[in-house]
Amino acid sequence: QVQLVESGGGLVQAGGTLRLSCAASGRTFSSSTMGWFRQAPGKEREFVAAISGSSIRTYYADSVKGRFTISRDNAKNTVYLQMNSLKPEDTAVYYCAAGGLRPGYARDYNYWGQGTQVTVSS
User: Fold this and answer.
1) Residues 1, 109 contacting (CB under 8 angstroms)
2) Which segments in the chain show pLDDT lower than 70?
């Protein structure tokens, strides 16, 4: 069993930065692909970024490439999402997920956090 707790969301102006954290419990964290997804009101949940267990591979949605960076610290059982140059369209609830077989597919992930709100004002 894996439990995920996100933090770091908030309100920021366009062009600003935020760093999300996802603290995980469970012995399989270090070997699990970890992902970030987001869901805006009235929209489906969408892939943002993912990182393999060994951190060798990272994956990004086209909409965030060059602005967001995913990383992990297996010693701390934590995955991060550094978000720079934020835009109003980045406004959403951001979810951390663990255990994805295909990094970009939400249905492949077994465990989810409760989400953290990110609001970007124009």
Assistant:
1) no
2) none
